[in-house]
Each structure stands twice: as C-alpha cells, then as structure tokens.
Design goal:
The complex is a heterodimer.
Chain A (H helix, E strand, L loop, with lengths): L2 H16 L5 H13 L1 H18 L10 H11 L2 H8 L6 H22 L16 H12 L16 H17 L9 H4 L4
Chain B lengths: L1 H26 L1 H15 L2 E9 L2 E10 L6 E6 L6 E4 L4 E4 L17 H8 L1 H4 L3 E11 L2 E10 L6 E7 L5 E7 L5 E12 L19 E4 L12 E3 L7 E8 L9 E7 L4 E8 L9 E5 L2 E8 L2 E7 L3 H9 L1 E3 L2 H7 L1
Antiparallel strand pairs in B: 1-2, 1-10, 2-3, 3-4, 4-5, 5-11, 6-7, 7-8, 8-9, 9-10, 12-19, 13-14, 14-15, 15-18, 16-17, 17-18
The chains are: A mainly alpha, B alpha+beta.
C-alpha cells in the first residue's frame, strides 16, 4: 500500500480505537503507536476535538486561536474519515451537514466570547479560519455520495471494475473449499 | 484437467500421508483442529448470522450453507445497506449487486472439496511457512470454541486467528492479521444453527423478479489446453499453481480471459489475463477490499489483474513478474 494508504489505514485504526472496535491486543498496539508517532497523536487529538464539538462536550481549554484550530482539525481530515467517524450517528446527510456547520459556528462564537487569551496545547495553530473553510467541510458532507477520492484502499475509483475478478476468484475458492469461511464476503460486503 | 488433478492428488497424497501423520504427532492438537475445520467446511450444513468488520465498518450478513456430496450450495445476503446477495450452487452463481454491471462467474472443474482435501493432506508442507499455536477455549455465538493462531514466517502473506466450534469444527470467528499484528478484517458469527438439511427455500434468491440488477451467468469454464506460456517469475515461497481456467466469454462477456490460481495452501491468489486494447477500462495499480488486495497492470497487449488474500506487496510482485513465453518470438530472436 502506498503512503496515502498507510496513513489512512493507521488513521482508521485510531478511529476504531475511539469507537471501541479493537481487541485488547490491538488496543495496546495502537496506543503504543500513538505515543510514538506525532502524526497519529495529532490524528487522535483531532478526532477527540471533532467528537467533542459534535457532542457539545468540549472542555474549557480553548484560547483565542481555538476557532482556527477547530477549523484546521476538520479541514485536515479527509472527508471519508469524517464520514467514517460519524456514520454511527445515523442522521440524514442534510441534518449532519447542518449539525456540523452549526457545531463549528457555535464553538467559534463561544470560543471568541469565552476564551479570549488562554492558549491550549490541544492542537498546533496552523490555519486561519474563514467562512469558506467552514463551508468547505459542509460541502464535502453534501457531496459524500458522489465525490471521488484518491483513497484506493476502501473506495477505489474502479471498484465496479473489480467485481468480475472477485466473483470468479471467490467462486474458485468456494468451489474448492479454500479460503475463509465466507469466500464471497468481499463481493457482498461492498457496493454501498 | 480433472484427470491430471485427481492423479496428482492420489500420488502426492500417498507420499505425503506418512509425513503428515508425523507432523501431526509433532505439532499436537492444533493441527488436528485445523484438519477438523477443513473437514467441517466440506461436511457441515448450517444457517446463521455474522458480522464482518473491516476498517472500522461493520456489515451484518446472513448465510445458509448446505454441504452435499459433489458440491455445496450457499446463499449469502447482506442485511444492511443496499441489497447485495450471492446465491451459488454447483452449476451457477447469481449475484445481486447495486449499480453492478453484468458479471460472468464461471463454475469450475475441480471436484468440490478436492483442494481442501489436498490442503488437509499437506498441512505439514503448508505449515513450513506458518507457525501454528493454540490459544485458549472461548465462546462465540453461544458455543464453546477452541482458538488457534497462525502466524506467517514472512511478510508476503497474512496471519490468522481462528475460533473453531468444539462440537462441529465450524469456523465461527476469524481474524485476518497484518504484518504489524493489526486486524485487517474480522468475521464473527452471532448465531448459528447446524442442520442436517437446509429447509427448502432457504437457499433460493430473495430477489428473483424484484430487482433488475440480478445478474445470472451459467457459462461453462473450460480448462485451458493451451501450452502453459505464462509464468510468474517471483512467486512467494510455498506458492504453486493450483488451477488454470479459460473463460471463453471473458469476465465481462467481452474478451476471453485466463485465470491462474496460485496458493500456498492457506492464502490464494488469482491472476487474470485478458487480451485487451491499451485504452481498455481496467483495474490499474493497487486497490483493497478488507483483507483482499488487487493489483492491475499491463503486459504488452494484455491486461493483468491479480487478486488475493495476501498483502499488497505480494499481488504487486506477482503482477509485475508475470511473463509470457512465446515460442515463435523466441525462435525469431535466435
């Protein structure tokens, strides 16, 4: 897998960790990786921040640059990971868009009013906020069903092209008692 | 091909019988459990629900499987999201996939269970590339299970953690393990019922007449009688050619295709070769679905697509080292 695939794969591990979808063994492994890898640590922090914003449980740690950092955190996440992170909320796309936009707007407003000077170590100050930044996130949410991604790992642009090969590969395994317990799993579990 | 294959199994099976027995004695119970799992795959009929986890996503599925002499029957259906279903028997495969294009899925020539029988006989050879260790008793889907761990000895294949039903040997939970010890995908039954015979109707497609996206194919694959001109120059140790098929109508009903199946006994890779124009829409480069990797590339006038439950590096290595030996071309060079 290429670099982007590795990054996404590891980010997904962090995502799974936050969702409690890892075994005890994986839990230790991923925590160790987070402690060793600054990129993963940043990923971990951003996920927490985004989650806290959506759940309105953000702790009072912000500073004057909080809106910028919230925006940067959202912007730096590939949209498929954002979709991934919040798919369990089972809202309609429009409600989700509205909720995210409202959450970002709310925290921006509150942060400016409430935390005029404190500095936080949650995220590095790395981006400036502008209305278009927030809209970018909302736009991405709206375009979830159709936007192409360069993530070839789980959303390959040629996914449909793979089907004939996977079906015949699976049929060979199934017809000969090879492979895992469900040879057609890679055919049936995709195509959403 | 069937004749050659049967002969091969008989000869190698006799030769390997004594060594397999010795390996079993050395390795003790885990190897016996693995053999029991392989046997259950061929003989146990069941119906159940399971979850499939990959990349933080969860899919819930229902499976019905009837084991029969001469070929099993199976129905697999996704219980969430768009309608997706595969129904297969010894003659045909019927796929219902959203936004799908017509598929041609061929039935194959080998007698059902032949390769799993081969695997059972050659477990000692297979285990030359893996370490097999027992874990501990556990419970899955309300049933008592034994767990095993299979670790690869190189980075060219994946590891497995398996949970086997103590009563039947059925595989009730499995994890595919990456080289960093991470779980790439997981299948876990939440309920399963073992049945002597599956009730009539449970193996019938639920979408017949309901969805236009129903793709049924009933083509017959012919074993290729063309001299073997294709070779993979860089195969992982332990992998060998297990099967070779010719798809006269192609995989998409357009261009004839050849399929070569390589396996080390646990991991399996299919290499598809199609004679297509360079601008043909095709899989290019690597892609992945859960624990299955694919790699597409061009070799002269052929599209080469490699798929298998092995790491990306392995499908790429196989795809880029495929060569065609053309006697006419070699004569000209001389």
């Amino acid at each position: 897998m290429g670099t982007s695939g590795n990054v996404q794969s590891r980010a997904e591990e962090v995502s799974a960790l936050m969702d409690g979808e890892v075994s005890a063994r994986e839990f230790e492994h991923i925590l160790h990786e987070i402690s060793e890898d600054p990129d993963l640590k940043g990923c971990w922090t951003r996920y927490h921040l985004v989650r806290d914003v959506l759940q309105q449980t953000l702790p009072p740690l912000g500073g004057s640059d909080l809106p910028e950092r919230v925006s940067a955190a959202l912007k730096s996440e590939p949209y498929y990971l954002l979709r991934h992170r919040f798919r369990h909320l089972s809202w309609s796309p429009w409600k989700r868009v509205g909720a995210m936009a409202a959450a970002v707007a709310t925290i921006t407003f509150l942060a400016v009013l409430t935390f005029p000077s404190h500095q936080s170590s949650v995220l590095p100050p790395q981006a400036s906020i502008s209305p278009s930044t927030v809209i970018w996130v909302a736009d991405q949410e709206q375009r979830f069903p159709t936007v192409e991604t360069d993530d070839r790992s789980e959303y390959p642009t040629h996914q449909a092209e793979l089907d004939p090969y996977l079906v015949n590969h699976s049929e060979y395994l199934a017809g000969n008692g090879m492979g895992n317990v469900v040879p057609f799993i890679h055919v049936v579990s995709y195509g959403e | 091909m069937m004749g050659r294959t049967t002969g091969y199994f008989l000869v190698v099976g006799l030769v390997a019988g004594s060594s397999a027995m010795a390996a079993t004695q050395v390795s003790g119970e885990p190897l016996q459990w693995l053999k029991r799992m392989i046997e259950a795959r061929r003989t146990v009929s069941y119906e159940g629900d399971f979850v499939y986890l990959h990349s933080g996503q969860i899919t819930t599925l229902h499976i019905v499987r009837q084991a029969e002499p001469g070929g099993d029957r199976e129905r697999l259906i996704a219980l969430d999201g768009p309608m997706r279903e595969v129904v297969r028997d010894r003659e045909r495969v019927t796929c219902t996939l959203p936004k799908g294009k017509p598929l041609v899925a061929d039935t194959h020539h080998l007698p059902d269970g032949a390769l799993s029988e081969n695997l059972s006989q050659h477990l000692d050879e297979v285990m030359a590339h893996y370490d097999l260790t027992p874990n501990h008793p556990d419970r899955v889907a309300g049933r008592e299970v034994w767990s095993l761990e299979i670790r690869p000895r190189d980075a060219l294949r994946y590891g497995h953690r398996l949970w086997l039903d103590m009563a039947t040997g059925l595989l009730l939970k499995s994890e595919l393990i990456g080289k960093r010890g991470n779980t790439l995908e997981e299948i876990m039954f939440t309920q399963v019922t073992v049945l002597p015979t599956i009730p009539a109707g449970h193996l019938e497609s639920s979408t017949v007449g309901l969805l236009p996206a129903l793709h049924t194919s009933v083509t017959t694959t012919t074993a290729s009688d063309e001299p073997l001109r294709w070779t993979v120059e860089r195969l992982p140790p332990g992998f060998r050619l297990e099967g070779r098929e010719h798809h006269p109508l192609g995989l998409k009903g357009v261009t004839p295709a050849q399929q070569f199946v390589y396996s080390d006994g646990l991991a399996t890779v299919s290499v598809f070769i199609e004679h297509t124009p360079a601008d043909h829409e095709a899989v290019s480069g690597p892609s992945r679905r859960g624990g299955l990797n694919a790699y597409g590339t061009r070799y002269k006038d052929w599209q080469v697509t490699v798929v298998g439950e092995v790491p990306e590096a392995t499908v790429e290595m196989i795809g880029t080292s495929l060569r065609r030996h053309d006697p006419l071309e070699e004569t000209t060079k001389q």
